[in-house]
Design brief:
- By secondary structure, the chain is of the alpha+beta class.
- It has 13 helices and 6 strands.
- A 6-stranded mixed β-sheet has the order 1-2-3-4-6-5.
- It starts with 7 loop residues before the first helix and ends in a 9-residue tail after the last strand.
């Protein structure tokens, strides 16, 4: 189920796995292929990941399986599950007519999650296998600066969107927008380009889903950020694209700490103040404030196709 040891480095590099991880992952391959129990777990993991491939709304239950992997794999077993699933994911993409370049950039999020894990824990591993399942199941695609996940409207969001005149009931197809790390600034021009690409991409490759509503659930939509950042900052201009879908009342203070500083458990008192966003996040918490997940939406049709 895995590429041989000679081919594995090229596969890992295509998935943007950091160079310093390659030798260890190739060496650990022997543990997977020579251990009958590990091989069985690998097969079970791939089967669970790919069941109902292409369908939305199902999150594979990989946590217990990954926890059962041999200790010698040092938390890297998820890498082999995704690599073994790769040919099936690519075949699904080809069936949908998805360009190879979009496949490559989408699945390169594996390398990003390995880099995030290294930054936080100092060793090889995958930061969020549950998150990457969306990529390898054909649910999420990287289109320029942003990522777009095929999803369905819920009980709370559908009525809000329907009042704006869109055809929206619970279960209506929508897109969840995500902002990946390690991808440069969140400039308005980069976002405009991504949104134009998304409108074109989903109309072409998933025409049966008739997607128009784009949703985002992120601490970056917390309106309190406007107290700290200039009106023309990238973050504030990103916020201004969205209409409010609903409001959270439960604090989510670890979210900005994790995404801005790399570790949700860092002591608030010692958070760095190098950038305007770092100062905003840390100063607000040190003053006794809280951060919240913002929930916003907008119609995808507001963004013109390329050439319009």
């Amino acid at each position: 189920m895995l590429p041989d040891a000679d081919d594995l480095p090229d596969v890992l590099l295509d998935l943007a796995v950091p160079h310093e991880e390659i030798n260890e992952l190739v060496a650990l391959r022997r543990t997977v292929t020579r251990d009958p129990g590990a091989r069985r777990l690998l097969e079970e993991g791939v089967e669970e990941l790919l069941r109902d491939l292409g369908e939305t709304g199902r999150t594979p239950d990989l946590a217990e399986l990954l926890a059962s992997a041999p200790p010698a794999l040092h938390g890297a077993f998820a890498v082999y599950v995704f690599v073994a699933a790769l040919p099936h994911t690519l075949a699904h993409h080809r069936e949908r007519g998805i360009p190879a370049e979009i496949s490559r950039r989408t699945l390169a999020d594996l390398g990003r999650q390995i880099a995030v894990h290294r930054r936080r824990h100092g060793r090889a591993g995958v930061q969020s296998p549950r998150w990457l399942a969306h990529h390898f199941r054909g649910e999420l695609y990287q289109l320029g600066r942003l990522q777009f996940e095929r999803a369905r409207l819920g009980q709370h969001t559908a009525p809000v969107i329907a009042t704006a005149g869109l055809d929206a009931v619970p279960g209506t197809p929508c897109l969840n927008l995500h902002i990946p790390d390690f991808h440069g600034p969140l400039t308005p021009s980069a976002c405009d380009r991504s949104l134009a690409l998304a409108r074109e991409f989903f109309a072409l490759h998933f025409p049966e889903e008739h997607t128009d509503a784009v949703l985002c659930h992120s601490w970056l939509l917390d309106p309190q950020l406007k107290r700290y950042l200039p009106a023309r900052s990238n973050v504030v201009r990103f916020q201004e694209r969205f209409r409010i879908a609903c409001e959270d009342t439960e604090p989510a203070d670890t979210e900005p700490v994790q995404f801005v500083f790399g570790d949700p458990d860092l002591p608030v008192a010692r958070l760095p103040r190098r950038t305007s966003v770092e100062r905003a996040v840390g100063d607000h918490l040190r003053a006794g404030g809280h951060w919240y997940i913002g929930h916003g939406w907008f119609p995808l049709r507001e963004f013109p196709l390329r050439g319009e």
